[in-house]
Specification:
With 247 residues, this protein is an all-alpha fold. It is built from 8 helices and no strands. Helix 1 packs antiparallel against helix 2, helix 3 runs antiparallel to helix 4 and helix 5 runs antiparallel to helix 7.
Length: 247
């Protein structure tokens, strides 16, 4: 069971315990299934039975039932991306990469809000400069999430048993050294794509930091148009390069 499911199971137990404590504690609702009337006894027994069934079913789902993984093509929201990445957090070979991807998702959201806040202070939303900055930021965010999608596409090629086998020592696998090595090389190649996507996203985050700095210095510079700003040109080149690569 991965950490995410462990948290859900602990929360389920805590909620059920809290409900029962509230219902049966003498200092709270004080429901009595022994000395109370028939209706109170029946209600109390029903609560206990339902609590037990919910706990059993929830434990089964979280401990034994395989999670339903949403296909990558149906992932659309930020929450979808976070949930999909969480499915790979417990794999030892991916732990650091997934942690970095989740951290990048958190950082780009904060940077985007900071940039929009600064823009709102410097420009009116109907100004051309505001629209240009806003459009570039949204394009960069789109590129960022395309890279996260690329990571998930690469990881979806392997299932949990593949990751376990790749992490096992070569001598413990009942195949020839050549076959094990070729499979390991292929696995490593896929992981290198993941690292590459993370690197591009880190570059995107850096460029957004540069853009924020350049916007804050607008009053002390003399650009005739925001498109002349170095960071805007760098971001535009990155977007065009990626579009060209994906064609």
């Amino acid at each position: 069971m991965n950490g995410w499911r462990s948290v859900k199971l602990v929360l389920l137990i805590a909620v059920i315990a809290a409900i029962n404590i509230t219902l049966f504690s003498p200092g709270l609702l004080g429901l009595d299934i022994q000395g109370g009337d028939a209706l109170q006894t029946a209600f109390g027994v029903t609560v206990l039975v339902v609590s037990g069934l919910v706990l059993l079913y929830g434990s089964y789902v979280l401990l034994f039932k395989a999670p339903v993984t949403k296909p990558v093509r149906k992932i659309t929201t930020r929450e979808d991306y976070i949930e999909a990445l969480h499915d790979y957090r417990h794999h030892k070979a991916l732990k650091k990469d997934i942690a970095l991807a989740l951290d990048q998702l958190d950082r780009i959201e904060k940077k985007k809000h900071t940039l929009f806040g600064v823009l709102s202070q410097r420009f009116e939303e109907n100004e051309l400069s505001y629209k240009k900055f806003h459009g570039v930021i949204m394009e960069v965010e789109k590129l960022f999430y395309l890279n996260i999608r690329g990571i998930l596409n690469k990881l979806s090629v392997f299932d949990a048993s593949d990751f376990s086998r790749m992490g096992a020592p070569h001598g413990s696998q009942p195949f020839s050294n050549r076959l094990v090595q070729e499979r390991s090389d292929l696995y490593t190649e896929y992981l290198s794509f993941v690292t590459g996507y993370l690197g591009v996203n880190e570059e995107i985050l850096l460029k957004l930091d540069k853009l924020l700095l350049e916007i804050s210095l607008l009053g002390s510079t003399d650009y005739r148009d925001v498109d002349e700003m170095p960071c805007m040109q760098e971001i535009d080149a990155l977007i065009k390069q990626t579009k060209l690569y994906k064609q």
